[in-house]
Fold each of these.
Amino acid sequence: MKYEGPSAVPDKRALRRELLAARRELGPAERTGSGAALAAHALLLPELAAARTVAAYVSVGTEPGTAELLETLRLRGTRVLLPVLLPDDDLDWGAYTGPGSLAVVRHGGRMELAEPAGPRLGPDAVTEADVVLLPGLAVDGRGMRLGRGGGSYDRVLARLERAGARPALVVLLYGTEVVARVPAEEHDRPVHAVVTPSGVRRFTHP
């Protein structure tokens, strides 16, 4: 995926289709290995080392694996919050206390997600996070993230902004998903870093 410059900004839906198709072509070994490599690089981030609370997520389908990262953060003593998808696509949050604290939940006919089975902490719990780990499909050289289009994390980022919270925003991707340009709208907010199985890239915001 080589998009050169602003004049070549791709259509969001077309770019999502292309990125999802590329993920489906990844072999099982590549998917499995990505989780360990991703965790190794992410855990070197000073922001994660210093974080008392991290809002994260359980990877699904062909996403880069997060299981090892979640468990290592927990064993470090970090409080890990995981999302619970609400009927309106907003996110509630619950605590991750180990693999046994997750339950698979089917959301209508759309998808099955592993979510925390314990008490719900409310949508505003994310404002307590020192780091928010974000899923996505791509990020560009400005740090602008392309999500799946459901809007759940747009709401999370808006909630953080309203609360005056300033956590480090980190997106987890495959290396090929760091592209030259993704479409961005006025409400979109850049992330501070991207972690891939091959390393970390930071973004400087004005």
Amino acid sequence: MDAAQQEATARARELQRNWYGEPLGALFRKLIDDLGLNQARLAAALGLSAPMLSQLMSGQRAKIGNPAVVQRVQLLQELAAQVADGSVSAAEATDRMDEIKKSQGGSVLNTTTTTSSSGAPTVKRVVREIQSLLRSVAAAGDIIDAADTLAPTHPELAEFLRVYGAGRTADAVAHYQSHQS
């Protein structure tokens, strides 16, 4: 790999860190390990071709262009956490992965997959949907720039953009909960 390719790969990984919280290679390897998948099965569950998954993992491509795929990544991350904490068995995880694979994305607040016992979407799920939507529209740096522009006249909107568009999920959950009546 020449210097220009190395620079492009480093830039792609930095963009991925801004958009997805970490480089996609690391994120996808965690999913592979946590869910007992190989790259081909992960690609199928996400609705990506194996070459596209490889390009995203290696930093040859920076962005997942399809919001439904981004949503499936988030659903698989949630599933991996549930497998890790023991609330979902391996057999259930396989069934859930099949459901995730079939999901088309769609509405911003898809309440059919992760809900609380009352049937309402979980706070974390709502927050992640908001984050995903904002991050599919613009990079974190651009969102921060927009927030800085809005701050003098609309500080609450600026804070919203910073917290949900470029912040950590835990901070966004706290913000969301503090603004509920």
Amino acid sequence: MLKNKILITIIPITILFSFSGISNANAKTVNMVHTKKFTKNFAQYKKLAERLSKQGYVYSINKGSSFGTNTYPVVQYSHKDTQLVINKKVRFKVQHIWSYKNGTSVNLVSKDKKYNAWVNFPSSLYNIHSKYNDLKPLVSFAKKIFYKKVKNNKYNLNKLRKMANNIKSTKERKLANHFVSQFDHFLLKDRSFNSLPDLLIGNLY
């Protein structure tokens, strides 16, 4: 796997912190254990984290995701809390994206500040707009282009743009056109995490 590149077949990335049995009381917060070597791992995706963070509380957790505390080592939240967060589609805001060796994780905080967590990036979270009825067909067709189930050519990219322009809601049409612009750049110029379109996050699996 080429460093920083997304392959056509994407394999879910394993979270790099150990889920240990230590108590929350004994776990140090990530801020307490920062070192030059540790913080260097945030720099790689700093711009991406800032971009996603500006969007606010628009991310939720995918089913089957590992969901751990913002501590070092990470302590996994209980099954009850994890299921509650997933089933109620609790909304999160991105704070940091952390990379080390062959794994990438994202630090999220919930709107009510109850959960400050780490999950795998990009498989474990999704942008809530990607589940909107008017935007789902757009995301689905983009995935077909990405996985070469339809030809990656000018005709299909124009078809994707036409689908976006045909959305009636002004708000969702704006989101759709922004997504298409992101997707064109990602597909044709830079297939890296830093250019991953918002609505494809967590939806390429």
Amino acid sequence: MTVGLRGLWEEDGAVPDMTLGADAILPWGSGMNANEMAWLMNDPDPDRWPVVAWRRHHSWGESPWALFDCNMVQFITRMMLGQFEACRLGDASLWKQTDTFVSWREQHRRLGAGLDPSTGEPDPYAHMYPITEDWP
């Protein structure tokens, strides 16, 4: 896990404005949606290490890395209680922002109708996705 996460740190450019190298990352956990959490070993005192997370789901142009200025226990507590300003790891269920389930058949119907398969809203790009009999 350490080698892989440190590789992502190097490939993705780390946390914005961070100058520490990949050897400053010490993984400690994986979460839902394939998020990876680690300590940022930026202090001689391990009790002062903040949490960094590599997020599989992030906004376009945003770094997949996020820095949480808290220790691991505070991070887990805040995540489980939904106490961060917004969900930073892609699973918004703690913020009562869950998506509804849409079957593949309904997604197929929506796409054929020019709608976004997940939301049902008009999708100007729906024509870009070919619909075949073996879809999905």
